[in-house]
Amino acid sequence: MLAADQFVKYLTIENLPLQKPVPVLGEFLQLYYVRNPGAAFSLGSEVTWIFTIALGVVACVIIWKAFGLKSRLWAAVLGLLLGGVLGNLSDRLFREPGFPVGHVVDMISMPWMMPAIFNVADIFIVTGMISVALLVVFGLRFDGTRERDHAVVETDEEAEAAAEAAVVATETDADEVDAEDVSSVDAAHDDDAPSEDAAPASEGR
Questions:
Q1: Packing angle between helix 2-15 and helix 72-94, nearest 10 degrees?
Q2: Alpha-carbon distance 122 to 128, whole Å?
Q3: Cα angle at 132 between 45 and 121, to 5 degrees?
Q4: Does the pTM exceed 0.85?
């Protein structure tokens, strides 16, 4: 993700004129090379360093959450999100006018949809955030299980009641198993016992 973002930015810097629209699909899609010191719509251009810190914090949180992941889907989504964050963070750290206030290279414009100009990293970030929201809604956990696989306990009293119910259920099952064993043994003894109505065996002559 990071490599793809930086490669597209390299091609943009080398081949596109600065702040001049290059139509790709008319008004639907254009290439428009700009350097953005702020966030979307160039907001906060005077406090670029704040965005650098925010991106760094988000990257650290994603990496921390990645440890112990057992869900491949969560791993893919967090990897997508991390790639986008690192793409823009690299611009903040290493591009002009310098560390840590570098300007982000943007080049994708869709005037019919929004006035903002964005880049590949932004696509990764937005897609990753939407995917995270969907995974949360569908109840998929980091360990690969779903919310419906876990009993929801809201209070200590409910937790104790749930534990007691589990113990009672276990003891009941054990008693039923013992009763079945006893019944089987009694039935076996009854089959082996001689019948009272049976005639005594005749003695040999």
A1: 40
A2: 10
A3: 40
A4: no
Cα–Cα distances in angstroms (integers) from residue 157 to residues 56, 149, 160, 166, in the given order: 42, 21, 5, 14
Give the count of alpha carbons within 13 A of 124, CB side only. Answer: 22
Catalytic center residues: 106, 122
| Dist. CA 45–CA 159, nearest whole Å | 52
Is the peptide bond prior to 100 cis by the omega test (within 30 degrees of 0)? yes
pLDDT higher than 50, residue 204:
no
User: Nearest to residue 140, comparing CAs of 73, 66, 63, 61?
Assistant: 73
Rounded-to-integer distance, Cα 82 and Cα 62, Å: 7
The C-alpha atoms of residue 168 and residue 165 are separated, in whole angstroms, by: 5
The pLDDT of residue 199 is above 50: no
